[in-house]
Design goal:
The chain is mainly α. It contains 13 helices and no strands.
Length: 316
Amino acid sequence: MYESLLALDQVKINFSATGSHILNILLAFIMFGVALDIRPKEFAHLFKKPKALIGGLLAQMFFLPAITFGLVLLFYKILSPTVAMGMILVAACPGGNISNFICNWAKGKVELSVTMTAITTILAIITTPLNFAFWGDMYIRYLSKHAGHLLQPIVIDPLQMFQTVFILLGIPLILGTLCARFLPVLTKKVAPWFQRFSIVLFMAMIVLAFANNFDIFIHYIYFIFIIVLFHNASAFMTGYATATAFGVTKKERRAISIEVGIQNSGLGLALLLNPKIFPPDMAIGGMLLVVAWWGIWHIIAGLSLGTYWHRRPIND
């Protein structure tokens, strides 16, 4: 398995500049739709009793990246460098917007899910570059010490990533929030359609990323499937365990678990396919496959978990 994944590390992804621009536009539309759902009164309500929100944010922005770092160290003899870095990148991303739909289906606390998505997305302008640079750098240092001859250079510019994340997330969020504030009637009409359309857009992003790399995907999917399955399950469990430790209600536990298990891997794709951050001559095959398959699998796993909880009543 390790030899196969190591070969994946040397694979260069075929992706045009036009494709990268289209990907960025799709993600901007998705983030604009997320902003349409942001309601200041929901923030105020949760801030009055912030225990669940604090626990959820810690799980999402600190515990998940930290646990992911622990996993890539624990299995460093099995995981290749770019696969491990792909896991770290996913963990550094904010919550995905589809988590709100799944939370509602799972009978979780939807306002907590929406607020977590909003806050982690806003803070991702800082936390995504910071978490990826911090945990990624520590992982590279560890490998350089223990398996230096196996490590290909993976160096990024955190400031460039910050700039890109601000453009991809910050601007659409600002525009969406302004629209919700000054055009409430229109927002109420279009927001549900944006939510449905965003799922289609996200799948279009996945197809676009794989369009010229389908043979690579088919060849390595067996290994990536197992890795993402385990990593994603760890994310759901991290959210649920943190919520349980904070002593919140069952509805809040469900919301936090789903929120941490559903990551905005679309942002990860957009970053990976940005030539200013990851130059075309950098081999990032493992990172791309991990992030892209995460985008598919977390929907399947999230809907499965949501359906299980949907059928189980909550008594608290």
